[in-house]
Amino acid sequence: MRTTVLRGIQAASLTALLLASGCSGGAARAPGLDGSGTGSGTIVWLAGPETETASDDVRQVLVDAFEQAYPSITVNLVTGPNSTDTLRSTLHRELSAGAVTPDVYSGDIGWPYQFARDKLALPLSNYLPRSFWNRFGSPGTPGSGATMVAAMRYRGAEYAVPYFVDEGFLYYRKDLLARAGLRPPATWEQLVQDSAVLKEHGLPYQFVWQGNNYEGLTCDWYEIMADAFGRPPARASTAAQLDSPPALKALDFLRALITTGVSPRNTDTFEEPDADNAFDSGHAAFLRSWDSSYANALSSTSAIASPQKVGVEPPPAFQGQPGPGWSVLGGWSLFVNPHTRHLRADLTFIKWMASVQAQRILATQYQEIPTVASVRTDPAIVAGSPVLQAAARTRPVSRPSATADYQKITNAVHGNIYAALPGPSSAGQNPCQALVNAAREIDPGVHGTLRCPARS
Question: Beta strand pairing status for 104-108 and 41-47?
Fold first, then answer.
């Protein structure tokens, strides 16, 4: 799930676009559109940038290649609001009102249950044959396109086509570590020790990550909490996981990163672009981020644009736990607006985006993790992709998004974790009480094991 921070038009402008494009309460797709044939005309694709600073826009590269293959279809690419959370809420509001565009929209791995339940996405398995879905690989393969297909399923139907997989990685400065005689840290404790050594190089930051009050913090949290448990914490309810000693260990560690200066004091303001920019500008030695960050770091706008300076590994584990650490599973998929007037063209577009040609572009030119199994496992492609090499060794952990109530869960998680961070914007709440509060917001009757000495 990347919680990609989307740039471009703001929410208000997106609302205006949707209204101007035929939003009305009674809007519906034209009768008789069964999805057969390739279709024609102009469709609108709403998507966030897959790379934040890379000089070439992967979305436009894909659109150009598609239009060359299907000259009867034009794709109007539109960039959404500045955050995934804002995009979700704006799309939900406008599609609920009957907006006929965007025809196709990119959505996070955590969206299908809500958008399918509220009839804001077409059940694509009603239009695409079973053989189409086989390209994503065998069910149960961790971090695969098949895992994403399962995440797109609601009441027996698939509501989106997996576009690319996201996983969390640890990026590091190869040159700085080599100069100090250090290896990439395999444990969080080692990262802290290495940061003390590297601080002598005068970097303003050592380790940057996403600490703002949004979905990105939920992703970071599920990784570090899984590390504290030593396994994906899926054997108990989400609320009970939070109200537990391992969760407190994880939160204490995040807080200590800030209080000891390993991470910047204003980490509670950081989202993906902020963390990427700190690393790409040469101001940090370590970065927790998604697969797209490798292309960002090597782009023409980066101060460290050299494979000899940028390394990528699976996240560390806590000392005493088997490594590597856990990597939250994310990714983006393509949904079709149920009010679209261009269903045939929409289906042609999303099928092509899940083709070998499109997926090779993502993997070879932009270091994205492809969803099509034959591309992800192609030895020639893997050999040329440090990200895919690292992805082959990750241990994915999922967020509890297989519910229509996920927004309530994630709001409770990132809202209360944020409240406990010791930054200038967050409240610096007692960490034990913050976890209990999060657990009770999710389940008021939770019976956890934390015993907080005092309420904050």
Answer: parallel
Counting beta carbons within 10 angstroms of the beta carbon of residue 300, is it exposed (0 to 12), middle (13 to 18) or buried (19 or more)?
Answer: exposed
Helix (H, G, I), strand (E, B) or coil at 329: strand
Low-confidence ranges of the chain (pLDDT < 50): 1-13, 19-33, 456
pLDDT at 203: 83
Number of CB atoms found within 10 A of residue 86's CB: 17
Alpha helices per DSSP H over 302-383: 343-353, 356-366, 373-376, 379-383
What does the alpha-carbon distance between residue 386 and residue 165 come to, in Å, rounded to a whole number?
15
- Tokens 């000899």, located at residue: 308
> What pLDDT, on the 0 to 100 scale, is given for residue 51?
54
Q: Are 442 and 242 in contact (CB under 8 A)?
A: yes
Burial class (CB in 10 A: 0-12, 13-18, 19+), 26: exposed
Beta strand residue intervals within 80-168, DSSP E: 104-108, 153-154, 157-158, 161-167
Its sign, for the CA torsion 399, 403, 404, 408, is negative
The tens digit of pLDDT for each residue in 227-281 reads: 999 998 766 689 999 999 999 999 999 999 999 999 999 999 999 999 999 999 9
Instruction: Write down the residue that tokens 């309810």 correspond to.
Output: 237
Is the CB of residue 171 less than 8 Å from the CB of residue 311?
A: yes
Q: What digits encode the pLDDT tens for the residues 341-355? A: 999 999 999 999 999
For 376-416, the DSSP string reads: HT-HHHHHT-HHHHHHTT-EEE--S-SSTTHHHHHHHHHHH
C-alpha–C-alpha distance, residues 248 and 225, integer Å: 9
Whole-number pLDDT of residue 14 = 54
Rounded to 10 degrees, the C-alpha dihedral 310/398/117/96 comes to -30
Spatial contact of 152 and 110, defined as CB atoms under 8 Å apart: no
Give the pLDDT score at 453: 83
Task: Provide the pLDDT for residue 30.
Answer: 37
Picking from 388, 167, 390, the residue whose alpha carbon sits closest to that of residue 289 is 167
**CB 317: neighbour CB atoms within 10 A?**
21
- Establish how many alpha carbons lie within 13 A of residue 141's alpha carbon, considering only the half-sphere containing its beta carbon: 18
- At 138 the pLDDT is 87
pLDDT of residue 81: 72
Contact present, 391 and 330 (Cβ < 8 Å): no
